[in-house]
Amino acid sequence: MLDLAVVGGGPAGLTAGLYASRGGLKEVVLFEPGMPGGQITQSSEIENYPGQLSVISGIELMQNWLPQAERFGMKHELDEIVRVEKQGETFLLTAASGKTHEAQSVIFATGSVPKRAGFEGEEEFLGRGISTCATCDGFFYRGKEVAVIGGGDAALEEAMFLAKMCKKVYLIHRRDSFRAPPATVERLKECENLEQMLNARPVKVLGDAKSGVTGIRLAIDSQGERDLLVPGVFIFVGRTVKNGALQDDRGNFLCAVESNGEVIVDLKMHTSVDGLFAAGDVRALSPKQVVCAAADGAIAALEAIAYHERKAR
To answer: What global pTM score does this model have?
Structure first.
C-alpha cells in the first residue's frame, strides 16, 4: 500500500514527490513512463525561472529535479498509469504494464499538451522559432515581427500580449471570423500593430538548421500563397488534456472536470474526490508556467500529508 501515488513526472509531479517524501510520507512513488521533466524539456532557452541567472535549456533546468526528490525517498516507476479508481477509502491504479498499485492518496499531474496546427516544419522547428507559449518566449522577440496562429480566446489574448512588446503581430486564422468572445475580438482594435489575417492557413515554415525560423508560408483564400518573413511563430489552436486515466470504460470521470476536460480543483488542489489532488497543467485555470506547476505540486503534497494526518487520528 503506497502512502501517495504521484501520476505524472513534470514540474508539478516532481515537486509533489519531493515535498511529500521530505514531509514524512514513507511510500511515495512517481509514475512516469519516460524521462521525467515534462514539456519544458523541449524548450531551448529558459531565462525566467526564479533564481536562474543564465539562459539554459529546459533539459538543463529539469535535470536535477528527479535525483533531488529521490534523495528524500521518492521512488520512480517507469510505467504509465492508465486508470485511477477509488475503492472504499483507497485508490487502485492500473498501469499500462498490467501491474496494479494501491494508494492511500493520489496526486494527478499528467499535464496537457498543445495541439499542433499541422503544417510542414512545425515539429522540426519547435523550440527554434516555433513556440506555444507567449509568456515564455515573447521576450526573445521584442521589437521584432511575429505571427500568431489560432482564432480562439487563448490565441487572441496571447496575440495582444505579444503586441505590447513586438514591432508587429500577424494574427492568422483559417476561418472568416474568430471563435473568441466578442468582447475579446473588440479589444483587438486597440492594438495598432496587430494585423488580422483571416481565411489564411499556414502551409510551411521557412528557415534552416542554422538560422531557425525565418518566416512562414500561408495559403490565403482568393489570394494564393504569401510568405511572411518573421523570426517567431506562436501556435495556439487548443490543448489536449491528459486526463484519460481518470475515465472509466463509459467515459465517466472519477472527479469533476471542466467542459474541456481540465480537472476542477480548489485553491489547495483538492478535487471533488477526497484523497485525490490535481496539480499543474491538467487542472483548470492553470497558468501553464513551470514555476506555477511547481507551486501546485508543493501545495498538493502538503495537502496530501494533512490528509494522511487526518485519517490517522
So the answer is: 0.90
